[in-house]
């Protein structure tokens, strides 16, 4: 067997990316995604595409922020690993199998082939997540009316709130940031993401109890694929009252009032309270996401 040849694509040969089966139906989930040909790479063996990866970022990003399309032909785990290892960007990898993939032998085999290639390339599992999509046919969630919401122009107010929220958290990305650089890094990474989203800064909202105490924050957002629940967080001293649902309901109403015809969202599978809130608010699970990160980052 010959060694795989890794090839970066251009606009003229981007068609090569389509020469591999798509058992996890990634193309459907990326109907709104815009990929740059020069951020797409394939592995060929004897002239046939046996692995492919699409790195992705926002329209103004100088480098990709993640890999969100990665396919490997059966038995070609090493070619897939070499595709990842040889890339000039070492960023987080997302694999998005459809819901119920564990119960379908073909889907499970396809997903596990990709997992094996990622691990062989030095990537480690970070977290498994549920992805949600609200549409108008689900109906708007009822606003409980218990909290007072207001815009806040000062980023330091959100930074301080995020430090408090992440001081007790189930979120795997926040926990990794805390391990690397403490609560300041975790809060700053969230702020950087909010600013990266192509939605107005004025949308960010603080929530207060009737007594005037900080309850939490919610960030209605648009990412390059459309309207999304950017962030929901309750400060530790206000937990136990179900306020996360109030924040999610308000965030949903806000986005609909801004013209959203669908709203995406996501949460870690281990975050049972937030998963329950998404279900209560009428957000069905439409797929899953398995996040891997380069092991070198954790060093």
Automatic annotation (TrEMBL):
Signal peptide, first to last residue: none
UniProt cross-references to InterPro entries, sorted A to Z: Acyl_CoA_acyltransferase, GNAT_dom
Limits of the N-acetyltransferase domain: 163-299
Gene3D superfamilies noted in UniProt: 3.40.630.30
Top-rank lineage group of the source organism: Bacteria
Name by which UniProt lists this protein: GNAT family N-acetyltransferase
């Amino acid at each position: 067997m010959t060694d795989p040849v890794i090839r970066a694509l251009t606009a003229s040969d981007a068609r090569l990316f389509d020469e591999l089966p798509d058992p996890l139906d990634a193309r459907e989930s990326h109907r709104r995604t815009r990929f740059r040909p020069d951020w797409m790479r394939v592995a060929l063996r004897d002239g046939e595409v046996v692995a492919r990866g699409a790195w992705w970022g926002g329209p103004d990003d100088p480098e990709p922020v993640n890999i969100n399309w990665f396919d490997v032909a059966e038995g070609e785990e090493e070619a897939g690993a070499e595709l990842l290892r040889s890339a000039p960007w070492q960023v987080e990898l997302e694999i998005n199998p459809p819901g119920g993939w564990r119960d379908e032998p073909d889907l499970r085999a396809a997903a596990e082939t990709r997992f094996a290639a990622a691990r062989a390339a030095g990537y480690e599992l970070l977290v498994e997540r549920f992805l949600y999509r609200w549409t108008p046919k689900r109906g708007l969630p009822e606003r409980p009316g218990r909290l007072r919401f207001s815009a806040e122009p000062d980023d330091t107010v959100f930074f301080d709130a995020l430090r408090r929220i992440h001081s007790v958290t189930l979120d795997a990305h926040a926990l990794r940031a805390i391990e690397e650089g403490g609560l300041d890094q975790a809060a700053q990474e969230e702020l950087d993401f909010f600013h990266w989203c192509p939605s107005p800064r004025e949308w960010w909202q603080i929530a207060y109890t009737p007594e005037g105490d900080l309850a939490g924050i919610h960030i209605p957002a648009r990412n390059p694929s459309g309207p999304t629940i950017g962030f929901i967080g309750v400060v530790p001293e206000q937990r136990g009252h179900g306020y996360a649902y109030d924040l999610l309901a308000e965030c949903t109403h806000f986005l609909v009032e801004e013209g959203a015809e669908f709203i995406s969202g996501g949460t870690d599978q281990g975050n049972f309270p937030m998963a329950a809130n998404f279900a209560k608010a009428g957000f069905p699970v439409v797929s899953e996401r398995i996040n891997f990160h380069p092991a070198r980052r954790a060093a």
